[in-house]
């Protein structure tokens, strides 16, 4: 006595319609495709350290504000696009050039982990770098030539930053040139005094930041003299006429730098990844301070918010 209800009733079981099977297969294929796309997208974001991109955008706002010229929406958009492309290109090429060192020291990075080939990362990096410089060409010959200089500095840093005592200077020069490019693009080739002073202050801050980052994995902070660069953005205010609206941004910048140094200081509460990530976000606070000193507090607020955005994105995509 076998068979189910269909056999007992003398009826044959109906086959599953082919259309239903096709729909299930189609849905499964769609889910797999979405997962693959999400995986590729996540890998691209991680390679580009895009969590730090808001600090590039605040750099552009500061460079534009300090240029002393009215900024049109089109020019600002092109600067944001070009310098974002160059930043991401630099991160891609950094991973590609460091692949052998990362295989020993950071095997979880995408290339040594086998998630992507070095050749593909090189191709993407050079393509993004060329695209960024090409966008700057639309802003005039001065911006184009400055873009070529920035691209060259990025390549030199990526090729020669490991065990290089000048790597903090090279990193600072990369960021400093963002200000210079914005000034040249918006002024037609001239740079204002406040922009040059702010660029030097940013350079000092970046040298200190990179120096702190190099102490990760060490017991102490090495020499304390390089850390004085963190005070350069507040000291910039001494060269400018007093503006009352700079005070909140000054206190925010000083307080945040002190908080990050506390995290980096040797002791039981030391957290170097958070200290370095926080100092990276602090670039945007320095930008906000410079913008406020230029008499544009309405631009300083979104620059300061870029610091918060950087910290938020760092929780999803590592910034170092």
Automatic annotation (TrEMBL):
Q: What's in the keyword line of the UniProt record?
A: Cell membrane, Membrane, Transmembrane, Transmembrane helix
Q: Give the domain of life.
A: Bacteria
Keyword Secreted, does the record have it?
Answer: no
- Gene3D superfamilies noted in UniProt: UbiA prenyltransferase
Which InterPro entries does its entry note? Answer: Prenyltransferase_related, UbiA_prenyltransferase, UbiA_sf
Membrane topology per the record? Multi-pass membrane protein
The record's Pfam families line, in alphabetical order, gives: UbiA
Q: Which residues cross the membrane?
A: 68-93, 114-137, 143-160, 172-189, 245-264, 276-296
For the keyword Coiled coil, the answer is: no
Q: Which CDD domains does this chain map to?
A: PT_UbiA_1
Q: Where in the cell is it found?
A: Membrane
Q: Which residues form the signal peptide?
A: none
- Official protein name in the record: UbiA family prenyltransferase
């Amino acid at each position: 006595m076998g068979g189910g209800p269909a056999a007992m009733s003398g009826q044959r079981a109906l086959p599953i319609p082919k259309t239903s099977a096709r729909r299930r297969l189609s849905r499964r294929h769609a889910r797999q495709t979405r997962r693959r796309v999400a995986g590729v997208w996540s890998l691209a974001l991680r390679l580009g350290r895009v969590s730090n991109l808001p600090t590039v955008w605040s750099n552009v706002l500061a460079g534009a504000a300090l240029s002393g010229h009215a900024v049109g929406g089109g020019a600002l958009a092109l600067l944001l696009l070009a310098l974002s492309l160059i930043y991401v290109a630099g991160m891609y090429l950094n991973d590609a050039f460091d692949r052998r060192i990362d295989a020993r020291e950071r095997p979880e990075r995408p290339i040594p982990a086998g998630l992507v080939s070095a050749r593909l990362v090189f191709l993407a990096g050079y393509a993004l770098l060329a695209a960024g410089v090409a966008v700057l060409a639309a802003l005039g010959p001065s911006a184009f030539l400055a873009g070529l200089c920035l691209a060259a500095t990025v390549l030199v840093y990526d090729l020669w930053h490991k065990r290089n005592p000048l790597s903090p200077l090279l990193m600072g020069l990369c960021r400093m040139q963002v200000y210079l490019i914005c000034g040249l693009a918006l002024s037609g080739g001239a740079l204002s005094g406040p922009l040059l002073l702010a660029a030097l202050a940013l350079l000092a801050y970046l040298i200190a930041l990179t120096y702190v980052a190099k102490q990760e994995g060490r017991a102490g902070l090495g020499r304390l003299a390089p850390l004085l660069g963190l005070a350069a953005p507040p000291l910039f205010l001494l060269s400018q006429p007093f503006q009352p609206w700079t005070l909140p941004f000054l206190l925010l910048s000083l307080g945040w730098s002190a908080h990050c140094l506390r995290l980096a200081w040797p002791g039981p509460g030391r957290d170097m990844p958070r200290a370095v990530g926080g100092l990276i976000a602090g670039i945007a606070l320095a930008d906000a301070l410079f913008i406020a000193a230029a008499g544009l507090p309405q631009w300083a607020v979104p620059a300061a918010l870029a610091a918060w955005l950087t910290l938020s994105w760092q929780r999803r995509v590592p910034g170092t």
